[in-house]
Amino acid sequence: MEFSDQFIESFIHPRNELLQKMEQYAQNHHVPIMKASAIEVLTQILRIQRPKTVLEIGTAIGYSAIRIAEAVPYCRIVTIERDEQRVQLAKQFIEESHVGNRITVIEGDALEVDVTKFQSTFDAVFIDAAKGQNMRFFEKYSPLVPSGGVIYIDNIYMHGLSDIPLEEVPKRKRSMIRNLKEFTEWIKNHSDYSTTFVPVGDGLLICLKR
């Protein structure tokens, strides 16, 4: 059964002025932020989970970090971004928000960040960075998630490219999609995680640590 976009969007509440400004900026400057339907599902699940600490891999302009902080009161968020320009922009937007005191932005490559500097574990990790590096992100940061914690990963469907034979994928994206397919098969069969795929936005993966 298919649902109309209008019906789905009727459940999405209007965003405040800052978030609308960020959405417009992302659209005008081709900055990838989470699709409206997907961020609504993610934040609703996080409201249910009620994590006290969240780690985000891939800040971009800070949109999802702000949305998560708004959805989960008292939650503290650490978010990592390697693009210097986006880091500065994210910090500006976060300072404009009313949740900025609960969000810490770290500038750097998430694959090079020294995880021993983190003072605690994270109840949730949200991976929304280079799609071909999901395996490496997962292996690096999953030890920081305790039993009962959740790892969320966006863009698993990759606009349908994950669901077609590799030889049909454009050559310039073939390596990334190969890595994504390998990661997806690996995590589906990982005995330490209960994993499900949610067909919302561009595909959201939810991995509950046993």
UniProtKB/TrEMBL annotation:
It comes from the Bacteria. Its EC number is 2.1.1.-. One of its GO terms (molecular function) is tRNA (uridine) methyltransferase activity. The keyword Methyltransferase applies. S-adenosyl-L-methionine binds at residues 34, 64, 81, 109-110, 128. Homodimer. PANTHER family: CAFFEOYL-COA O-METHYLTRANSFERASE 3-RELATED (PTHR10509:SF14), O-METHYLTRANSFERASE-RELATED (PTHR10509). Catalyzes the methylation of 5-hydroxyuridine (ho5U) to form 5-methoxyuridine (mo5U) at position 34 in tRNAs. Belongs to the class I-like SAM-binding methyltransferase superfamily. Cation-dependent O-methyltransferase family. This is tRNA 5-hydroxyuridine methyltransferase. It comes from Ureibacillus thermosphaericus. The gene is trmR.
